[in-house]
Design a protein that fits this description.
single chain; alpha/beta; Aminopeptidase; 6-stranded mixed beta sheet; 3-stranded mixed beta sheet; about 20% strand
Length: about 325
């Protein structure tokens, strides 16, 4: 999926973090349970995620992703949103045959020229290559490939009802990881986002994106979203702004400290399109800990290991961030 440099955290750091989280060594601070607003429904968000995963593995160019594309386009159009697509071709890394790719763009208030973008990828890696028992097994990609799309489905009715001061585009990228062999196919990362960024930079347009937020792996049951290193370096003001919004609305799962460096779809947006973009990614899936197992790129990345409540917590932050845009 991406090259990862994991931050090294000592036991002392973990202890200090726990002390800080509990209120600095005094009385234990217990936050009240988060209650989703009426317009966000965790059960519904989870059902969206399950529906996406019911299509099965969805690598670029497969019949399954074509079926998912048709479903998503119909879903967003039926909701009342404007839907565009960007189509392009790449060569398959194994057989060299052409692979038809499709970015899906859902637009809200398309008449507004100042816009923001929320983006995610909707393809899945061909195999669970990091699965310790079956690295050529079945990869469903619930969190990694499904969670951001489910969030987009969940927030669409609210976006359609909001009085927007900026236009909003939800962008679903194809080809985030058309990777069959990580040693040979490294140029097959971020195909959809790179295509989008190149078109944004080169083609005539009458609008501009002031900021972008990338969603990747945001449905973990034990959600912890830290600053991502590249986001903090390339879009620091935006990154801090999003985490400040989370604090404002009481979502404590956003932790304002750098933890991981992740190569992801936000890189072409920052580097090619020059759109300040931050990455929301919980790479500690399913949980924090030096010795914890990881569901990333394994057969365990399934809906049962994800949470509709986590999707809605991230959605609440994004909707409040959009409300604050001028």
């Amino acid at each position: 999926m991406r090259k990862i440099i994991v931050g090294v955290i000592s036991l002392a750091t973990i202890a200090i973090g726990a002390w800080w989280w509990l209120g600095g060594g005094g009385e234990t601070v217990v936050a009240p349970p988060w209650k989703p607003p009426a317009h966000l429904q965790p059960d519904r968000a989870y059902q969206y995620l399950k529906k996406i995963c019911d299509f099965g593995p969805r690598p670029s160019g497969s019949d399954a992703i074509a079926n998912l594309q048709a479903y998503l386009i119909d879903h967003f159009k039926a909701a009342g949103a404007v839907v565009d697509t960007q189509e392009f071709e790449v060569r398959h890394p194994v057989n060299g045959m052409p692979v038809k790719m499709k970015n899906i763009i859902v637009r809200f208030a398309p008449e507004i020229k100042k816009r923001v973008l929320l983006c995610t990828h909707y393809d899945t890696r061909p195999f669970p290559d990091r699965d310790p028992r079956n690295p050529r097994g079945t990869f469903i990609g619930a969190n990694d490939g499904g969670s951001g799309v489910a969030l987009f489905q969940e927030i669409t009715p609210t976006l359609l009802q909001m009085k927007l001061s900026v236009g909003v585009d939800l962008i679903m990228f194809d080809g985030e990881e058309l990777i069959y062999d990580d040693n040979k196919d490294r140029g097959r990362y971020f195909l959809g986002s790179t295509e989008f960024a190149n078109r944004y930079r080169a083609e005539p347009r009458d609008f501009n994106y002031s900021a972008g937020i990338l969603l990747d792996m945001i449905a973990d049951k034990e959600l912890h979203l830290y600053y991502e290193r590249n986001s903090y370096d390339m879009a620091r003001a935006l990154t801090r702004e999003v985490w400040a919004v989370a604090e404002k609305v009481g979502i404590r799962e956003f932790v304002p400290r750098v933890r991981h460096e992740v190569r992801d779809d936000h890189l072409p947006l920052n580097e090619i399109a020059k759109i300040p973009t931050t990455d929301l990614i919980d790479f500690d899936y399913p949980r924090l800990g030096v010795r914890s197992v990881s569901y990333w790129h394994t057969e365990q990345d399934i809906p049962e290991n994800c949470s509709g409540e986590s999707i809605c917590k991230v959605a609440a932050v994004l909707l409040e961030w959009i409300r604050n845009q001028k």
